[in-house]
Design goal:
single chain, about 160 residues, mainly beta, eight-stranded antiparallel sheet, three-stranded antiparallel sheet, about 0% helix
């Protein structure tokens, strides 16, 4: 008698380990100059229990941090957008990276040739004022951007 079965190719992004899913940067500007702080940093987030049962890709995408209440065109000398780079590492030899201010992000998707389970570390950095470092940010109680990490079965 034959005993048969199969295992479909699938991926799971895991769960966020401790600390929630928000990168809270606090006050974005140097309150003396009004310019973007040069020391902005946030601890990385870790996705635990991630796995793919076959060849896979990791893709990182991000949106710039934009003022949520001040939605008009900012006056001369000001910006309402902060660009940054989001990185997903640990899944592939080369980390997947996405820069919100870049015209294209060819490194945003990386491929792993085999099944794998492990942690993915998600981090943000390399902050810059959209339009140039000499621009000040408009006052707003909420600047918001989003980082998305996707694991998918690869053909």
């Amino acid at each position: 008698f034959a005993v048969t079965g199969n295992v479909p190719a699938l991926c799971s992004g895991g769960t966020i380990a401790g600390g929630g899913s928000t990168f809270d940067l606090g006050v974005l500007i140097d309150t003396t100059t009004g310019l973007l702080r040069t020391d902005l940093a946030a601890p990385p987030k870790v996705l635990t229990g991630s796995f793919c049962s076959s060849r896979s890709t990791i893709t990182v995408a991000a949106t710039p941090m934009t003022a949520q209440n001040f939605t008009a065109t900012p006056p001369a000398g000001f910006s309402r957008t902060v660009d940054y780079t989001a990185t997903g590492s640990g899944w592939t030899t080369t980390a997947a990276t996405f820069a919100t201010g870049a015209g294209s992000n060819p490194g945003a998707t990386q491929t792993r040739p085999t099944a794998f389970s492990g942690d993915i570390t998600v981090s943000i950095g390399t902050f810059g004022t959209n339009g140039g470092s000499g621009l000040r940010l408009v006052s707003d109680s909420s600047y918001l951007g989003v980082v998305t990490v996707t694991l998918a079965v690869a053909n």
